[in-house]
Design goal:
The chain is α/β, with parallel strands linked by helices and 254 residues long. It contains nine helices and twelve strands. The protein has one domain: P-loop containing nucleotide triphosphate hydrolases (Rossmann fold).
Length: 254
Amino acid sequence: MTNILEIKDLHVSVDGKEILKGLNLVLKLGTINALMGPNGSGKSTLANTLMGHPKYVVTSGKIIFKGTDITNLSPDERAKLGLFLSFQYPSEIAGVSITNFLRTAYNATHDKKLSVFEFKKLLESCMQRLQMDKKFLERSLNDGFSGGEKKRSEILQLLALNPTLAVLDETDSGLDIDALRAVSDGVNAFVGANVLGSANDKCILIITHYKRILEYIKPTNLFILIDGKIALAGDGSLVDELEKKGYGWIIQDN
């Protein structure tokens, strides 16, 4: 399988404090990857750094995406290359409808532009997968949304924009069982063989604290982040060991 993302000796600081301390990570096309670790280990820092948030300063190291060094690229340039981030705390934008926001984002990141009618058909297809009411499209982006509605909105964006690499930062946070299943179905539809693409041309990085989402979205690989570095990597079965032992044994070994 082809490498889609290569992170080499990445050091990142926030407000002068180093958070990532020489992180190395390789993700391949056609894989579902989970990233776990204790609070403060640098998981969300990695997600925001991948998307180019200016608060997160790369002091050394490289991020290679689809063979291109994106370390110093702007967020919009990264998005055009096919990188997507689902936020842990999505922003609310009153007065901007979901339809207009997503169509603008789609046309800004894709060579083929879609008409209003074409994009509406695409959105309706995506919404069926997420069990969302069509009236949802008339609402302002995340304005007055519940936690579960915000997360469904993020996955709707994922399906509609159809990126190559999707980074999901604690998408399962605050979801009830029904919402978790719907969101998981949407993620599986994105990465699986379907009209939106094939399993070989997508990659997902799920950042989570909990095992439960990984019961619905089966990871190919699991990476454990401890104190700014990948301390352990394994297949999906590693999550069961974590459930039993916690992180203490990994911290001790490192």
